[in-house]
């Protein structure tokens, strides 16, 4: 299967990135094709609610790095969305990315795909309710099934490396990706 990971943390080798790498390692071990995109390396402008994507063609009028991501999302079977918890929500680039998924409402091209959400945070899973609910509702709206959420308590850069249990769960999530 095609697995596409979207990293919404500014920290390379930070907690989000490392957890996603573990998931991808698991996915690779089962011969899935994996790709990773770091949103902080790209220009992704905010949705301007012009609604042109709701018409024929379902195309976004904003010409930026999202153009390439639209194609890769359409080709993916499993989408991994990772963001650290920032004020009980996603990071700003992850929010911009989600807002820009609007063309998929009318094109329905994400319909039937699977997703995994990854969120490290200082406070841990108990603080991630509103964010995981936002992901769940938004993915439902797009016809994407949220398979699992990985919520890990971690604060310092790379701290998740000290938590073998979390890394094991991450690997298992990835190696569990297979054709049904
Ligand atoms: C601007 C900002 C806001 C944050 N807000 C929260 C928060 O509301 N709750 C929380 O538990 N952690 C919060 N954190 C901590 C991060 O979620 C935590 O350090 C996380 O492990 C960072 O992940 P990363 O290494 O992938 O960047 C915040 C960090 C920053 C920089």
How would you summarize what this structure contains?
This protein is of the alpha/beta class and 180 residues long. It is built from 6 helices and 5 strands; from the N terminus they run E-H-E-H-E-H-H-E-H-E-H. Bound molecules: flavin mononucleotide.
Describe the structure.
This protein has 180 residues and is α/β, with parallel strands linked by helices. It is 35% helix and 19% strand. It has helices at 15-29, 66-75, 92-99, 103-107, 129-141, 164-175, and strands at residues 2-7, 33-38, 78-82, 114-121, 145-153. The chain has a 5-stranded parallel β-sheet, sandwiched between helices. The longest helix is centred in the first third of the chain and has 15 residues, at 15-29. The protein is globular and about 50 Å long. It binds flavin mononucleotide (FMN). Flavin mononucleotide binds next to helix 1 and strand 4.
What key phrases describe this protein's structure?
6 helices, 180 residues, binds flavin mononucleotide, alpha/beta, 5 strands
> Could you give a short account of the major beta sheet?
5 strands, parallel
Amount of helix: 25-40%
- As a percent range, the share of strand residues is 15-25%
Q: Assign the structural class, choosing from mainly alpha, mainly beta, alpha/beta, alpha+beta, or little secondary structure.
A: alpha/beta
